[in-house]
Design a protein that fits this description.
This protein has 122 residues and is mainly alpha-helical. The protein has helices at 2-28, 34-52, 57-71, 74-86, 90-121. The protein is built from five helices and no strands.
Length: 122
């Protein structure tokens, strides 16, 4: 059952990441990896929200390990960041790497904190 939940969530997450990446590239161009940048930040926010719910094991397997595990991508983040440095786009590389890390942490804590406050108000 665990593998089925992770596989189902992962399939949906991977397809969503691919779709959002294509839309972002078409809309903003390929000079900056906007797709991966936005997906990773959104994933951090959503993981913070999911964590605040203290979801049961099956929900976490489906959405946390499955969907968000495939939706966000550390490997693409490293590949694109390295390629920006390699192609002498140092400012874009620095903005991409530091922006992803800093805003990702802020996004996680914002999702966790805001959801926690809303749950305590209910």
């Amino acid at each position: 059952m665990n593998l089925l939940l992770v596989g189902l969530g992962g399939s949906l997450g991977a397809v969503s990441r691919f779709w959002i990446g294509k839309i972002m590239s078409q809309k903003f161009g390929a000079d900056f990896p906007w797709g991966t940048f936005c997906v990773n930040l959104l994933g951090a926010l959503l993981l913070g929200i999911l964590s605040a719910f203290d979801a049961d094991k099956n929900v976490y397997l489906l959405f946390g390990d499955g969907f968000l595990g495939a939706f966000t991508t550390f490997s693409s983040f490293m590949y694109e960041g390295f390629n920006l440095f390699k192609s002498s786009e140092k400012l874009n590389a620095f903005a991409y790497v530091s922006g992803t890390l800093i805003l990702g942490i802020i996004g996680y804590f914002a999702g966790f904190g805001i959801t926690g406050m809303l749950l305590n108000m209910a």
